[in-house]
Amino acid sequence: MYQLGILKGDDIGLEVVPAAVQVLQAALQGFPDVQVKWADLPVGYPSYLQNGETLPQHTMEALKSMDGWILGPIGHAAYPKNDPKAINPHPIIRRVFDLHSNIRPSRSYPSVTSIHKNVDLILVRENNEGFQPDRNLFAGSGEFMPNPDLAMSVRVISRRNSEAVAETAFRLAQKRKKKVSVLHKNTVFKLGCGLFVESCRNIGEKFPEVEYEEIHVDTAAALLVMNPQKFDVLVTTNMFGDILSDLTSGLVGGLGMAPGLCIGPKYSMAQATHGSAPDIAGKQLANPYAMIMSGKMLIEWLGIKYNDSSLMMAAQRIDEAVSTVIELGTVTPDMGGKAMTREMTEAICASLEKN
Ligand SMILES: NC(=O)C1=CN([C@@H]2O[C@H](COP(=O)(O)OP(=O)(O)OC[C@H]3O[C@@H](n4cnc5c(N)ncnc54)[C@H](O)[C@@H]3O)[C@@H](O)[C@H]2O)C=CC1
Ligand SMILES: CC(C)CC(=O)C(=O)O
Predict the structure, then answer these.
(1) Of 104, 252, 274, which is best to mutate to test ligand 1, by the most ligand atoms within 8 angstroms of its C-beta?
(2) Of 50, 104, 204, 323, whose CB neighbour count within 10 A is largest?
(3) What is the pTM of this model?
(4) In which band, very low, low, confident or very high, does the pLDDT at 136 lie, cut at 50, 70 and 90?
């Protein structure tokens, strides 16, 4: 029996997270040996209105007994300022559950309008350090103002997390095109990026069959725009990865096409790259692809972890159903179609039920 959490989040989270759950449930119906207990857990602004806090303690407690969960986007920019009960939940969830690696694939589809075709890459982003360091390391957020005219942001890089995220990247590359590109700026951040690169080199020695390269992050940004097909797995620090994973989504059709999975030694969390998109929330315009494929990555990951071939096959079936529906053109406007969130989701479920 797997225990999976559902944390809808804010704005379009209320549309795309239920879409992902609906698709996972439809896919798992074909595998009666897989038992899942789902738990709806409050988080974000709806939770603030209901419980007075955006991340209730009982949600954090419940997550401890989960195998994994889906976290929707969080619209924290709109939360009340200066209320400690209105915190941004996701950096805390990522840290408390040691979700050190954020795996963000970008894949193009022939029938989706995009700047590039034949793109199939994964960006792995360190998830808990960089310019978003652990609040326990610094009083506050890692940012402070020694005087009203000077602000300082501290960037933290540890050998432990750098090696962990490198290991994630090499393991992924092993099963793909066998190439890892390390993106850094060690000419400037000699210590921080220096330690990150050294950690990646050390881990790389364990994977002699995987081609290894180091690229300055600014050069990599240009290469990604000009020739993304040259990449397989990219690995980098938190803030570089935050920016570049939005860029890689832009290569294949935009933020609606950007799924993600945060993993650590014990837990895993499906979390799309995009934010809560308040501009389109409540209108059934949100592309559910990113969240559905994040959910697919979650069950695939659990399948590998627990050597459960049914979970892996269910993930494979979601992949195929999504490709079929994209090919048929039942897609949202950002993908060039006319379908609403609900219609695209139902078309994916119908394809799963048919095959
Ligand atoms: N992981 C998370 O929960 C993240 C949360 N945010 C938060 O989200 C809120 C909005 O931030 P923005 O900068 O506007 O970024 P955003 O990613 O929410 O939206 C940027 C643009 O992409 C579009 N978009 C995003 N997801 C889409 C989807 N699934 N289908 C179709 N179009 C989609 C939006 O309509 C908007 O035009 C803010 O409160 C921000 O702090 C931002 C990034 C990540
Ligand atoms: C506020 C940040 C934690 C948002 C972010 O890094 C992301 O999910 O892309």
Answers:
(1) 274
(2) 104
(3) 0.96
(4) low
pLDDT digits (tens, 9 = 90+) for 339-354: 999 999 999 999 999 8
Q: Which residues line ligand 1 (CB under 6 A)?
A: 12, 16, 73-78, 90, 255-256, 271, 274-280, 286-287, 290, 334
Q: Is residue 110 part of a domain?
A: no
Asked if 167 and 221 sit in the same domain, the reply is yes
Last residue of a domain, one of 251, 274, 295: 251
For the chain, the domain total comes to: 2
Task: Judge if 245 and 274 occupy the same domain.
Answer: no
| Residue with CA nearest ligand 2 atom 3 | 91
pLDDT in tens, 46-102: 999 999 999 999 999 999 999 999 999 999 988 998 898 999 999 899 999 999 999
- Of 214, 235, 251, the residue at which a domain comes to its end is 251
Do 152 and 97 have their domain in common? no
Query: Half-sphere exposure of residue 7, counting CA atoms within 13 Å on the CB side?
Result: 30
Give the number of other CB atoms < 10 A from CB of residue 38.
15
For every residue of 131-189, which 3-state class applies, written as one string?
CCCCCCCCCCCCEEEEECCEEEECCECCHHHHHHHHHHHHHHHHCCCCEEEEEECCCCC
